[in-house]
Structure formats: C-alpha cells, structure tokens
Design goal:
Elements lengths: L1 H14 L3 E4 L6 H9 L2 E4 L10 E4 L6 H9 L3 E4 L3 H15 L3 E5 L5 H7 L6 E4 L2 H6 L7 E5 L5 H14 L13 H14 L4 E5 L5 H12 L4 E4 L16 E5 L5 H12 L22 H10 L15
Parallel strand pairs: 1-2, 1-3, 3-4, 5-6, 5-7, 8-9, 8-10
Helix pairs in contact: 1-11, 4-5, 8-9
C-alpha cells in the first residue's frame, strides 16, 4: 500500500499537478484526502481523464480493458498495482490458457475482484462463502482456485477445504494469495484477543482487510470496532474496559495510530506498549514508469555513488 501512495507522490513531482488516479489509490479516506490536497484528482473511470494526461492505476489492479482504453486516450499510464495482486492476475491468465475452470474466492464488487475477473472472464467463477462453494456446479474436470489478497485467512481456509473435498484434483497457487500484511495483522489480532477486552481497528469502511480484522477479533470473542481515526471512538465502548488493543488496516497511515494513542494519553492512560509480532520487511520497487522518470530528472553526475536500496 505504501508503494502505491509513494507512486502518486512521485508522479506529482515528475509531472506536476494534476495527476489523475483511477479509483482510490488505496482504501483509506485520510490518504485520499492528503493526495487530493497535493494535486491528485481521483476519477471513477479512465475515460474521465483528459487525453495525454498522467494516470495512476490503483493498488487493487484493473482489467486488461482498462489498459486498452487508457492507451486509446494516449494517457501516460503508471501502473501501481500491488505486485501480489499482479501475481494473482498472472495465475488467472495461466490457468485459463491451460484450459482450467478458475474459482476466484473473493467479495463481489471489490475492485481487486473486478480486475482479476477481467483477466479471464469466460473462465472465472466467483465464490464468496463456504455455502457458495458447496453449491458450485462445474462441468470441467480441470479446476483451479485463486483468491483475493485481502480476505480472512480462516474463512478462506474453510472455503478451500470445501473446494478440495468437492474437487479433489483442484489446483492451488504455489504460494497463498492472501497478502502478507493482511495475514500478519490477523495473526496479531488473534494474539491480542487473549490479552485485551476491546479491539479498535483503524481503517476506512471500504477497506476489506480492515473489516477482516474486526471480524477476526469478534470471532475470537472480543468486541471490536472499525474507526477512521480517533474521532470515531465512542467513549461508551470503554465502560468497564481496562485493556484495549489497537491495530490498523494495511492502508492506514502510521500517524493515525499515533493519534489514537494520543487520544488515550489525553484521557489519563499512561501505559501504552507495542505488541511484538511478525516484522514486515518485504519491499517492492516502484513502478518502472516512475523510476525512469526519476532517472531522466536526475542532475548531472548523479548515480556515481553506491546504489541505494529498492523502495517499497
């Protein structure tokens, strides 16, 4: 998610405002508002963008038809699709070309699902629940599954178990498709649930991975609420509560966590400690269009020193 946001920031430097962004770059209202203030213009459809203008595609990925329409309008397209989503798109194309019927586990209407289904619409069937999987009727003997990257790990595992029971030879991805940031946070919430009496999840209502954190906490028997920021906290939730767990969706900026912690400090809470969990150190390079632009914009003599690290 940080990679996608940084892509828009770099594009604003390279091209100047306005830079157009198809859909929300990530599902977080604070991030979107901040980028709008800096000159990003968010549009629902690439056909709303003036011909020849720069267009950033969101982290959730798009169908091939979007790339085609952007090319027809001669847009300067910068693809900020998360590499983990791109991996799912590649799997969909490969399975389809090999004659497989593909079961996509995901939520109907989510931008990532729309984009993935666009890769092979004639071969993909969407399944949203274990009930859907039990009712699924496929005539093809060659079946494979892929998943949206921001799902509940436990619910997805239940659906996969049903699919494997019904289609014993079903092909699976070599690596699970659920984003490491999504799964890590879910495991952390499960650990927190044994120690706290309430969980607050910082994230926007349209953030799939943030909503899944609320689901995980509640499934563990702990009350949980989704909040955009500290202003969303209802003091009534805290009646009789001594220990609160705070977490955030993958697209929520760290500053929002700091603000929520400050909200508690202002009300007399003195003991705030981080919960040790998995360290996320996976990084992805920025889109090639942005890196090429930075190279062209570099001053004479730049690049003579030691190479720097890849940026996420």
């Amino acid at each position: 998610m940080e990679r996608a946001v940084e892509t828009v920031e770099k594009a604003l430097v390279l091209y100047g405002a306005p830079v157009y962004v198809r859909k929300q770059i990530v599902h977080n209202a604070h991030v979107v508002r901040d980028l709008e203030e800096r000159g990003a213009v968010f549009v629902a459809d690439e056909r709303e963008v003036p011909e020849g203008a720069p267009l950033v595609l969101s982290a959730h990925g798009v169908a091939p038809s979007v790339h085609q329409r952007a090319a027809e309008r001669r847009l300067q397209t910068i693809d900020a699709t998360c590499p983990l989503v791109t991996k799912v798109h590649v799997q969909a194309r490969r399975y389809a070309s090999d004659g497989y019927r593909i079961v996509l586990i995901g939520h109907a209407g989510h931008e990532e699902v729309v984009g993935t289904m666009g890769e092979a619409p004639e071969a993909i069937t969407l399944v949203e629940s274990a009930e859907d999987a039990r009712a699924l009727e496929l005539s093809c003997d060659r079946v494979a599954y892929i998943t949206q990257t921001t799902l509940s790990v436990d619910e997805t595992a239940e659906i996969i178990d049903v699919l494997r029971a019904r289609f014993p030879s079903i092909r699976a991805p070599q690596r699970e498709d659920i984003c490491y940031a999504t799964s890590n946070r879910q495991w952390a919430v499960k650990e927190l649930a044994d120690r706290v009496e309430l969980v607050l999840v910082i994230g926007s209502p349209n953030s799939s991975n943030s909503n899944r954190l609320v689901d995980v906490a509640r499934a563990s028997g702990v009350p949980a609420y989704l909040i955009d920021d500290e202003n969303g906290i209802d003091a009534g939730w805290l009646d009789g509560v001594e220990t609160v767990g705070v977490t955030s969706g993958a697209s929520a900026p760290e500053r929002l966590v700091d603000r929520v912690c400050e909200w508690f400090r202002m009300r007399g809470v003195t003991e705030i400690a981080p919960h040790a969990s998995v360290r996320e150190d996976v990084v992805f390079r920025l889109p090639v269009e942005v890196r090429r632009g930075e190279t062209r914009a570099a001053p004479a003599g730049a690049g003579n020193g030691a190479p720097g690290p890849d940026r996420s």
